Every structure is written in structure tokens, then in C-alpha cells.
């Protein structure tokens, strides 16, 4: 992120109580190699400290913090016949964003190097990694614990923490982001002091203090709170697009609608819009005739929230899509599933942990790992066909099906329902049996043989297995194949 007001930055850095892993003050140092080693050390230490930038400032005494100015002009410095800035960029690997500025404040000359850490691997200068130990620059290899921690840290870079819009004023923040969901969705009282709201947004990771009296809006802040996502190029097109088709294929569509609000701002309204347009059937509930959607709202909500959370934001030009057909809903997100679809209920892994945590804290989805479980529970309670989870190289699709009696289900649908019912029972430390599967299909005891045939075929295809191979068939109990 570029430096817009170097004097404001200098003032802010001088407020720090002392030099730190990500901040170094010097007066004059014209040795390019020494400067290059500091760039490596500061970048690596900033990563360990969780900072988005590190700074090497010339013109300030490190102990007294006196502003004395510097004779150094980084943009005029040479290493051999090469400009220092070009040489430094060539000597540092992997490529990181390095900004070099010479500037004047109150009649004194200063220079600053701002470097962003690498999110790929530790930063080297001339083939060697450096780090900061206290206020001293050291070779990283001499401190294996720091080196190990740094490798772990470089693997934690997330889309959510990157900057969507930089150097914005407080007024800009409130013009582009809606803070109300922070309070409306959590039940916290909203303060009247705008600076307290800003502080809350910084603490939540929606904003970064850029140390220049302004703020950077993170992708997390934009995707959750944007009044209009098209203002932010990094997330434009990442809201939910809803398409309703007239029949069971794509030959004719009734409408297409794409949201423009951030997830926290628009999710409730999107769900209301969607549920009003789902296929419905007439039912009598407590003696009153009502039109009830084919799909339970809880299941729809959790599947959509799951698509938002697990999408791959690095796949450009496409976002989550909800397609409504006469007999099903298909929810697709960019990015393949990180988990085998057979283990999608019991294994936990997310591309976007900060987004997931924020969605949960706002009550927009279930607690960690519980969303799809609850989807299957709701579907079983209404005796609907089991959902289908389809992972491809570039996308993940979840299909929810309209009501269909057991006799009209295909063989594949019966086997899928059997498998996921078995998984759900296993997750509650229980077992599937012929009786539990009959209940799942809403069948009578006399349909024992029909269910036995489904179980036998599932065993044959290695989808389930007997919990105890020595047990008799009458009281047989079953587990998923991967739990046997």
C-alpha cells in the first residue's frame, strides 16, 4: 500500500514507545548491503509480528528519538553503476512490495523504506534470510525457532486481510461501509461516537490503521459491510447471483438477480427474496392451509453460507450462484472442495477462516462445522432426498432436491440417502439400522425388505460397513465405510 503522507507517517511512527521488530530508526547509513539486510530482517519480523508493513526510517536518532534529519538520499544512492532501488529489488527475494521515499518535514530531510512481508516464504537478501532479535539484526538460520515460526506464518496469508481500498478518511469509511450489522446482528448497542465505531471495525479486522491518520479497508471489511461491492474491485462480482428457471433445465429463465451489498448487510434480505421465490406446495399446518417451500429454510441458508465461506476469492470473474429449478436448487461457489465429499460432514477445513468466524459471530451461519450437519438433519426430518455434493477442478456445487417419495427415488438417490444417514448417526456416536433408515425414508415396518436391499447394495459398493461383522442381520448396525 503506498505512502500518501510521509510526514504524518513519521509523526505516527515516533509515537511508538520504542523500536520494534517492524520499526528501525537511523540517522545516516549509506551502505546498500547493510540496508538490504535490514529490509530482509524487517520484512520477516513484520510477518512474525502480524504487521502488514515494516519501516526503516533515516533522520531520527534511535535512542533519543530526536529529529535530526539525514544526509542520505535513497533515490539518488547507487550500488556500483546501478540505482539503489533497482538493485535492492533485484537482491531481495521473493519479490515484495518495497517503497523508497525521500521527503522533507519542517525543513529537515528524511528517508524511509517501507516493506511488506512476503506471504510466500521468508524474505532473503543476497541469498540469506535475516530477522530482528530485540533491536538487533541477525541471520535467521541462527534462530531455528524463529525460522520455524516464520515458515508457519507465511502460510497464513488470507484474502480477507489484504487491502481492498487504501488511505481512506473516516467519512470515506462510513460512505462505503455500513457498520450497523456489527451491532444489529450481534445485539450490541451501537455507540454514538463515530471514533468508537471505527475502533470496533479496526479490532474486527475490517479496517487497518495506516499510521498516516487514515485507514485501509480490508477485503474482509468490504465483503461483509460494503454498501455497494462494485466500489471495491477485489470483491466486485463476489455477491450471490440468483437465477430462477422455468422448468428442470436452463432452456428458459424467469429472472436473474445479483446482489450489491456485503454479506452482513444483504444476507437477510437475500434470504427473504430467495425463500419467497422457491417452489412451494400446499400443506395444512395446525389446521391452517399454508404454502410451504419445498426446501427447508435452514438447509438453504446453511448451504448458501457454506458457499460464501468456502469460495476461492482468487478465482476472478465469478462468485457464488444460486440456481432455482422446478425440482431442485443448485448452489455453486468458485473453488473446488478442500475436503472429500464423502467426509464433508465430519472433517473441518476452510479457505477463509476470518470470514467464517465473522459470519458465525454475526449469526449468519451455524457454529464451526455444524452448518452442513444441520442441513442434513433438516432434510432427513422432512424425508427429502439427500443433497448431492459435486466437487470439480474449479467449483463446488451442492444440490438440494424437492420432495420425492421413496418409490420414485432413483437407485443413486437411495444409496446417497443411506450413506449420509449412516454418517449422521455415526456423528452422534450411534449406528444406522434397518429401522432408522426406514424412519429416514418414512417407510412402514413392512417395507423392511426394500430398505434391506438398499443397505445390501451400499455394502456391496463399499459405502457402508457392518459395525460388527459377527452380528446377525436382524439386529445389524452399520457405520460409514471410512469408520469401519
Going by helix content, strand content and strand pairing, the class is alpha+beta
Which strands sit side by side, in order, in the main sheet? 15-14-18-19-21-20
Q: Provide the number of structural domains.
A: 4
- Tell the overall outline: elongated
The total beta strand count reads 23
Beta-strand level of the residues, as a percent range?
A: 15-25%
Q: Summarize the amount of helix as a percent range.
A: 25-40%
Strand count, sense and barrel status of the largest sheet are: 6 strands, mixed
Topology-level CATH name of the largest domain = Heat Shock Protein 90
Pfam families: HATPase_c_4, SLFN_AlbA_2
Protein name: Transcriptional regulator
Domain Schlafen AlbA-2: 19-140
InterPro entries: RecG_C_sf, Schlafen_AlbA_2_dom, Schlafen_AlbA_2_dom_sf
How is this structure best described in words?
Helix content is 33%, strand content 22%. It has 484 residues and is an alpha+beta fold. The protein folds into 4 domains: 6-157, Methyltransferase, Cobalt-precorrin-4 Transmethylase, Domain 2 (2-Layer Sandwich); 161-231, Orthogonal Bundle (Arc Repressor Mutant, subunit A), CATH 1.10.10; 237-404, Heat Shock Protein 90; 407-484, Arc Repressor Mutant, subunit A. It has a 6-stranded mixed sheet, covered by helices on one side. Helix 2 (32-49) packs across helix 4 and helix 13 packs across helix 15. The longest helix is centred in the N-terminal third of the chain and has 18 residues, at 32-49. The two termini are 53 Å apart. This is Transcriptional regulator. Residues 19-140 form the Schlafen AlbA-2 domain.
Amino acid at each position: 500500500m503506498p505512502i500518501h503522507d510521509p510526514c504524518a507517517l513519521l509523526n505516527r511512527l515516533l509515537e511508538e514507545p520504542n523500536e520494534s521488530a517492524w520499526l528501525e530508526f537511523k540517522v545516516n547509513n549509506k551502505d546498500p548491503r547493510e540496508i538490504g539486510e535490514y529490509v530482509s530482517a524487517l520484512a520477516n519480523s513484520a510477518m512474525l509480528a502480524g504487521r502488514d508493513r515494516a519501516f526503516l526510517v533515516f533522520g531520527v536518532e534511535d535512542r533519543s528519538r530526536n529529529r535530526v534529519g539525514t544526509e542520505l538520499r535513497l533515490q539518488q544512492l547507487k550500488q556500483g553503476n546501478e540505482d539503489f532501488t533497482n538493485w535492492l529489488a533485484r537482491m531481495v527475494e521473493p519479490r515484495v512490495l518495497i517503497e523508497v521515499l525521500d521527503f522533507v518535514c519542517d525543513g529537515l530531510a528524511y528517508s524511509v523504506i517501507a516493506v511488506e512481508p512476503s506471504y510466500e516464504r521468508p524474505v532473503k537478501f543476497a541469498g540469506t534470510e535475516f530477522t530482528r532479535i530485540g533491536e538487533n539484526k541477525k541471520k535467521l538460520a541462527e534462530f531455528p525457532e524463529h525460522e520455524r515460526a516464520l515458515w508457519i506464518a507465511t502460510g497464513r496469508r488470507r484474502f480477507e486481510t489484504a487491502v481492498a481500498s487504501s488511505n481512506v478518511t473516516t467519512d470515506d469509511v462510513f460512505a462505503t461501509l455500513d457498520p450497523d450489522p456489527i451491532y444489529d446482528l450481534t445485539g450490541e448497542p451501537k455507540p454514538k461516537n463515530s471514533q468508537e465505531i471505527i475502533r470496533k471495525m479496526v479490532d474486527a479486522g475490517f479496517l487497518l490503521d495506516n499510521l498516516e491518520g487514515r485507514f485501509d479497508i480490508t477485503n474482509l471489511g468490504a465483503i461483509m459491510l460494503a454498501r455497494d461491492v462494485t466500489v471495491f474491485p477485489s470483491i466486485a462480482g463476489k455477491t450471490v447471483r440468483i437465477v430462477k428457471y422455468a422448468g428442470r433445465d436452463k432452456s428458459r429463465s424467469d429472472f436473474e438477480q445479483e446482489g450489491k451489498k456485503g454479506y452482513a448487510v444483504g444476507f437477510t434480505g437475500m434470504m427473504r427474496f430467495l425463500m419467497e421465490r422457491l417452489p412451494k406446495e400446499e400443506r395444512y399446518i395446525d389446521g391452517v392451509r399454508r404454502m410451504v417451500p419445498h426446501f427447508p429454510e435452514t438447509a438453504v441458508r446453511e448451504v448458501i453460507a457454506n458457499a460464501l465461506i468456502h469460495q476461492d476469492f482468487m478465482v476472478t470473474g465469478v462468485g457464488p450462484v444460486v440456481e432455482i429449478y422446478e425440482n431442485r436448487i443448485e448452489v455453486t461457489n468458485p473453488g473446488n472442495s478442500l475436503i472429500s465429499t464423502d467426509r464433508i460432514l465430519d472433517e473441518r477445513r476452510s479457505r477463509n477462516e476470518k470470514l467464517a468466524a465473522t459470519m458465525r459471530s454475526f449469526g449468519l451461519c451455524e457454529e464451526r462445522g455444524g452448518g452442513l450437519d444441520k442441513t442434513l438433519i433438516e432434510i432427513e426430518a422432512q424425508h427429502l432426498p439427500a443433497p448431492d455434493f459435486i466437487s470439480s477442478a474449479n467449483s463446488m456445487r451442492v444440490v438440494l432436491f424437492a420432495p420425492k417419495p421413496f418409490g420414485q427415488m432413483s437407485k443413486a438417490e437411495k444409496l446417497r440417502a443411506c450413506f449420509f444417514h449412516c454418517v449422521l448417526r455415526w456423528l452422534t456416536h450411534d449406528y444406522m439400522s434397518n429401522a432408522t433408515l426406514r424412519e429416514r425414508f418414512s417407510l412402514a415396518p413392512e417395507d423392511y425388505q426394500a430398505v434391506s436391499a438398499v443397505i445390501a447394495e451400499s455394502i456391496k459398493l463399499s459405502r457402508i460397513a457392518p459395525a460388527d461383522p459377527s452380528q446377525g442381520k436382524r439386529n445389524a448396525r452399520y457405520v460409514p465405510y471410512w469408520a469401519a
